[in-house]
Design brief:
Layout lengths: L18 H7 L9 E4 L6 H13 L3 E2 L9 E3 L5 H9 L10 E3 L1 H10 L18 H5 L23 H16 L3 H15 L19 H13 L3 H7 L2 H9 L7 H9 L5 H6 L7 H8 L1 H4 L3 E2 H18 L4 E5 H4 L4 E2 L2 E6 L9 H11 L3 E7 L20 E10 L17 E10 L5 H9 L2 H15 L1 E3 L4 E3 L4 E2 L5 H7 L13
Parallel strand pairs: 1-2, 1-3, 3-4, 8-11
Antiparallel strand pairs: 5-7, 6-8, 9-10, 10-11, 12-13, 13-14
The chain binds uridine 5'-triphosphate and magnesium ion (MG).
The site of magnesium ion (MG) has 5 residues, from helix 16.
Length: about 500
């Protein structure tokens, strides 16, 4: 049997969430106004599944995800303050209106067969945020300079500033000025974590990572609704050209710069220039440019998960497949879809990736593949090279995805109804004892990973990368089978994947 002992593998098509499935979940609903969410924290997934089933069988609506639609949150957490801190970090607008309840409310309601009235004994008491408190900025002094100590959901309340900072960071990157580039990325990351929108510069006073330059840009935006410096960059020919060139799969800033220096300004300039030899990746990048420069939707990512799951299943009945990257962080759209694939038995993962590539080829859906064999060697660790690529076997693919395979159809299909699109997919295959490190590293975001490594180095004298965690004081590697183990070794509060959108 194909199973995943560590994380649930991507759902198979048969079990995927179809419109029918969501209708049947709401069948027999008796209490339309009450939407319960059972918090998995402290409850555990199997107990939660059991209680969910019980409540639904009694006509309750139980929401799988915690969103603003929820009216009653049930938790088995004993530490109210930690629960509230966590809830406040979830970016919920409706939190002040929700009932945050202990399990007694739930068991009372199950016994009565209806949602019982909320009494004081049901409440998880804390310095409960009043309406006013919940909408007041949290004390900024508590914001950490490290992204791995902040909770950052996909909801960005400060997009007007962070979009501007991204342009500035990219412009510095194109000019190979790493310091200011990183400074703007850090500043953007801090603002993304705030559960409130910055309305005046005074509100940023105690925030970390915001330098004079960042604040000047913010001030302009607050005053005029735009940044003149950013507008100047956006209209700059060099920036525009490098942005265009680096949007091609296989073209990095160095190649982009080389082409720009040769006076090339457009794709047709490049394709018409006989002295330019495109590598295989770049050729495919141009060939499928229209498709792969278009965002991939969550439904498309799920469909690809099903396809890869089935392909893996043909090869072996014993494998682990997990979605990672931005979609694991709950993003609605991504530039590619990232998966980890390995075997529960150490050493058996060796040929998995090449067999999987062969299988996808046989199915006629492999449009491009660059396979990199593993160069992983535990004896060469720990690596002191910051941000080096990892050594696991991996492949960068372009796959053909049929419209009919996607629930609700392809995203943003052009007029005339294309029946398929090309999608970028990355697969990485670490040995099972490296799984937790690879999962943490590939889940991202890039800024979250950077700060995890910086935190490990600066605050704990440890070296972290996609392969391992090394304690420099004890001079030993620290073992981990789950991401939680790694956070625990680092003495960090666990941050859920969907809170890592730094
Ligand atoms: P992506 O570039 O796919 O980013 O890398 P993303 O967060 O999924 O966002 P999209 O795809 O643009 O929507 C995912 C994570 O994998 C790591 C990156 O650092 C990032 O955190 N990664 C990627 C590696 O660790 N090694 C690699 O070779 C490639
Ligand atoms: Mg990705």
């Amino acid at each position: 049997m194909f199973h995943s002992p560590i994380v649930p593998r991507v759902r198979k098509r048969k079990r995927s969430k179809s419109p029918e499935a969501s209708i049947s979940r709401h069948e027999g609903v008796k209490f339309e106004d009450v939407r319960v969410h059972l918090l998995e924290r402290k409850m555990g997934s199997s107990r939660r599944r059991f209680l969910t089933h019980l409540a639904r069988s009694k006509g309750f609506i139980v929401e799988d995800t915690l969103s603003d639609a929820v009216t009653h949150v049930v938790s088995e957490e004993s530490q109210a303050s930690s629960l509230w801190k966590w809830l406040k970090g979830c970016g919920l607008k409706n939190l002040p209106m929700m009932h945050i309840l202990n399990i007694i409310w739930f068991t009372d309601s199950m016994r009565e067969g209806r949602p019982v009235a909320v009494e004081t004994r049901h409440l998880i008491q804390d310095t409960l945020p009043t309406m006013a408190e919940a909408t007041t900025p949290t004390p900024v002094a508590t914001v950490s300079q490290y992204a791995c100590q902040r909770q950052t959901t996909t909801e960005n309340n400060n997009k007007i500033f962070t979009d501007a900072f991204e342009v500035l960071a990219e412009s510095y990157e194109f000019n190979e000025m790493e310091g200011p580039c990183l400074a703007f990325r850090r500043a953007a990351s801090v603002l993304k974590s705030l559960p409130w929108a910055v309305q005046c510069l005074g509100a940023t006073e105690d925030l970390p990572c915001l330098g004079e330059h960042s604040k000047a840009v913010m001030e302009e935006i607050l005053q005029y609704g735009r940044s003149f410096e950013v507008e100047k960059i956006l209209s700059d020919e060099r920036y525009q050209t490098l942005k265009l060139f680096t949007s091609v799969f296989g073209v990095g800033p160095k190649t982009g710069e080389k082409w720009y220096r040769r006076g090339l300004r457009s794709f047709s300039d490049i394709l018409a220039e006989p002295s330019i030899h495109l590598n295989r990746m770049q050729q495919s990048g141009f060939l499928h440019y229209g498709d792969i420069s278009r965002a991939v939707s969550k439904a498309e990512a799920q469909a690809l998960g099903n396809i890869i799951d089935e392909a893996v299943h043909v090869i072996t009945t014993d494998a682990i497949l997990a979605l990672t990257g931005g979609f694991r962080r709950g993003k609605e759209f991504g530039h590619d879809v990232d998966f980890i694939v390995t075997t529960p038995e150490l050493g058996k993962e060796g040929h998995l990736l090449t067999s999987l590539i062969d299988q996808l080829e046989q199915e006629g859906i492999l449009l491009f593949c660059e396979h990199q064999a593993s160069t992983f060697d535990m004896s060469k660790l720990p690596s002191h090279r910051f941000e080096a690529m990892d050594h696991f076997a991996k492949c960068f693919l372009i796959l053909r995805l049929e419209n009919s395979q996607v629930v609700g159809g392809l995203h943003d299909a052009e007029e005339g109804g294309r029946s398929w699109r090309a999608v970028r997919v990355d697969l990485v295959s670490p040995p099972i004892d490296r799984y937790a490190f690879a999962l943490l590293g590939w889940t991202g975001s890039r800024q979250f990973e950077r700060d995890l490594r910086r935190f490990a180095r600066m605050e704990r004298r440890m070296l972290l990368d996609n392969h391992a965690l090394f304690d420099k004081t004890k001079k030993e590697f620290l073992a981990a089978t789950t991401e939680k183990d790694i956070f625990a070794h680092l003495g960090l509060e666990y941050i859920e994947p969907w809170q890592r959108n730094a």
